[in-house]
Design a protein that fits this description.
The chain is an alpha/beta fold. Helix 2 packs parallel to helix 3. It is globular. 32% of the residues lie in helices and 20% in strands. Strand 5, helix 3 and strand 6 form a beta-alpha-beta unit. The two termini are 16 Å apart. The chain is built from 5 helices and 7 strands; from the N terminus they run ββαββαβαβαβα.
Length: 200
């Protein structure tokens, strides 16, 4: 498949800390979400072949807004605040939760959510709960394992089998789980192939 889209220029469009500050709807959007420090920004950077487009941090909760990146003028990549926040107030966490839920259920150009799960930790209760949120929003989501280079092959096989069973109970889940490593560029081509059909 021709993945030239992912070699085209990508530029930051907007950062939205509230629904009112969301950019106008335009091209199809793909959202990236997961637990804090799961590697969302690193994956977005690997996906588009740039090292510093999406900001990475070792501090959970570093992404405090929805960051919109326009790829090739035909696909919007949205780096979202993580859930399971650490070191933030309950009030701030509540604001982020409201923003995330409102965006996921009410954005007409949002075509898919990529739900990132750290392969070293597997599916944790907040991940399972967020799958329910996506089901309720009737938003198609695809599970993306991150950091697979940090676990053994046998552990990865077992995790993929377990995940296959988990997503069967979630009507909004895409059946294909993609195993990736942003550092080693593993699975990036597969993810690109999955997202390419959404572009204009």
């Amino acid at each position: 498949m021709n993945n030239n889209l992912f070699h085209q220029p990508c530029r930051f469009i907007a950062g939205a800390a509230s629904i009112a500050s969301l950019p106008p709807v335009s091209v199809p959007e793909i959202a990236f979400i997961g637990r804090s420090n799961v590697g969302k920004s690193s994956l977005v950077n690997a996906l588009i072949g740039q090292k510093a487009m999406a900001k990475t941090s070792q501090n959970p909760g570093a992404t405090k807004q929805l960051n919109f990146f326009l790829l090739g003028e035909s696909l919007m990549l949205v780096d979202m605040p993580g859930y399971g926040f650490a070191k933030v107030s309950k009030e701030r966490k509540g604001e982020w939760d409201t923003l995330i839920r409102s965006y996921l259920s009410g954005r007409p150009t949002l075509k898919r959510a990529c739900l990132l799960i750290d392969a070293r930790r597997g599916v944790m209760p907040p991940d399972d709960a967020f799958m329910d949120v996506l089901d309720e929003a009737a938003l198609s989501f695809q599970v993306i394992l991150t950091k697979i280079d940090a676990i053994a092959a046998a552990a990865l096989t077992s995790l993929l089998q377990s995940l296959g069973k988990t997503i069967q109970s979630h009507p909004a889940a895409h059946p294909l789980v993609i195993a990736t490593s942003a550092d080693k560029k593993l699975g990036i081509d597969t993810l690109q192939e999955q997202l390419l059909p959404f572009a204009l």
